[in-house]
Amino acid sequence: MDVERFDVIVLGAGPGGEVAVFRLAPRGLKVALVERELIGGECGYWACVPSKTLLRPREIDIAARRGFGTGPTTLNWPQVAEYRDYMVRGYDDSAQVGAYGEMGVTVVKAPGRLVGPGAVEAGGRRLEAPQVIVATGSEPVVVPVAGLNEAGYWTNREATAMREIPESVVVQGGGPVAVELAQVFAAYGATVTLVQRGPRILAGQEPEASELLTKALEQAGVRVLTGVTVQAVQGGDAGKVAALSDGSTVEAAVFVVATGRQPRVADIGLEALGLSTDRALAVDAHGRVRGGPDGLWAVGDVTGVALFTHVAKYQGRAVAANILAARGDGEARELDYAAVPRVVFSAPEVASVGLTEAQASAVGVAVKVATVELSAVSRSFTFEREPRGLLKLLSRGDDGVIVGATAVGPLASEWIHVGALAVRAALTASFLRDTMFQFPTFAEVYVAAAEQLAS
């Protein structure tokens, strides 16, 4: 087998891998990009992009129902599905492959495996480079349930790519993916039951956020069952029956598994480098794989740091900068995960950054807490008749530095970034208190919360 030599090989063409390529190839490096499926990865075809596209008409409908002088809208599923297909490019990445070719990037569309330090085999080709970036992403966690494989199930892939809306759905899980998919199905007319094994949905968020969103789901017609597990599933294409741990059963046309994701480390050749194949690829502050050979980097979900597209892109930018810096081109960067935004694109949206109150207690950080209803700011009433939402802001007890924020309400995914900047820059509550925010906006709620903390 002939050897093809490059400066950098990127294994995986999701957001993290693509960001790195876009920063390396234009700087004169010879780059190979290996992808087993579609350029753009999970996010672009089966996760972030299609799910938010499917959620958008529902957002408009809810805003119209909760507004004033407006009413329910008509959700046209065929038109929504057609636009979803447009957003995912008809599941065709040929244009992206061509664009990379024009950039001088060698694209290999085949499963890739690490076969030694600086060496990857894919599609019958051997590629070698002094720098290799692993960006293989993640895959769904499927909790073993008796009869599930025989009965059949959907993951986020089948759900976001569905052609028709099922009459009824059981969603297993209570995290962001489960909540968002439950609202998608309900919006387009399905009868939805969400089954969460823990005592509340969104266990990683503040309890106040979970409570608000549970009420919103129930108001949207979603049946929320907490503290129960799925013990067995029977049936087939004609329908399924899920037996629950409390002795009850739930019938549905479709069973959706949304119980989390895990780094995709299997079958990529890590054992050839003496690395574990049963856990995430741990990276140092520069993005290098701990315990790996020189020149081995990792970005995105495979690192297990935080399975978000924005984290993958952030890591991709840093790793590309560090590879360039080693060549004397620019400055090196260090990765800092203190202010990772976390958003559930539900209605209302739930967004957070930094520590929750429980997390602060667990790590021994004494905090002051301020919780302000969103109705405290005028924008809430110009937005809808009956405002719902809140801001929970945490500051360190000894110096007043903001260490966490949770926002629930319309467009929380946008105004959470005030909290993200505060955590990242170690701003104090008094600094936020004395900052001017545009009137009328949701962001003004930070002033009300900061006044409580700074008093």
Describe this structure in words.
By secondary structure, the chain is an alpha/beta fold. The chain has three domains: 3-40 and 93-140 and 262-326, FAD/NAD(P)-binding domain (3-Layer(bba) Sandwich); 148-259, FAD/NAD(P)-binding domain; 342-454, FAD/NAD-linked reductase, C-terminal dimerisation domain (Enolase-like, domain 1). The protein has helices at residues 15-24, 41-46, 48-66, 77-87, 94-103, 148-151, 156-160, 176-187, 207-219, 309-326, 357-362, 378-383, 412-424, 429-433, 445-454; strands at 3-5, 8-11, 31-35, 106-109, 112-116, 119-122, 125-128, 131-134, 138-140, 168-172, 191-196, 223-226, 230-236, 239-244, 249-252, 254-257, 261-263, 296-298, 342-344, 349-354, 367-373, 390-396, 402-409. A five-stranded parallel β-sheet has the order 4-3-2-8-18, with helices on one face. Strand 22 and strand 23 (402-409) form a beta hairpin. The longest helix is centred in the first third of the chain and has 19 residues, at 48-66. The radius of gyration is 23 Å and the shape is globular.
SSE map:
Elements: E1 3-5, E2 8-11, H1 15-24, E3 31-35, H2 41-46, H3 48-66, H4 77-87, H5 94-103, E4 106-109, E5 112-116, E6 119-122, E7 125-128, E8 131-134, E9 138-140, H6 148-151, H7 156-160, E10 168-172, H8 176-187, E11 191-196, H9 207-219, E12 223-226, E13 230-236, E14 239-244, E15 249-252, E16 254-257, E17 261-263, E18 296-298, H10 309-326, E19 342-344, E20 349-354, H11 357-362, E21 367-373, H12 378-383, E22 390-396, E23 402-409, H13 412-424, H14 429-433, H15 445-454
Parallel strand pairs: 1-7, 2-3, 2-8, 3-4, 8-18, 10-11, 10-16, 11-12
Antiparallel strand pairs: 5-6, 6-7, 9-17, 13-14, 14-15, 19-20, 20-23, 21-22, 22-23
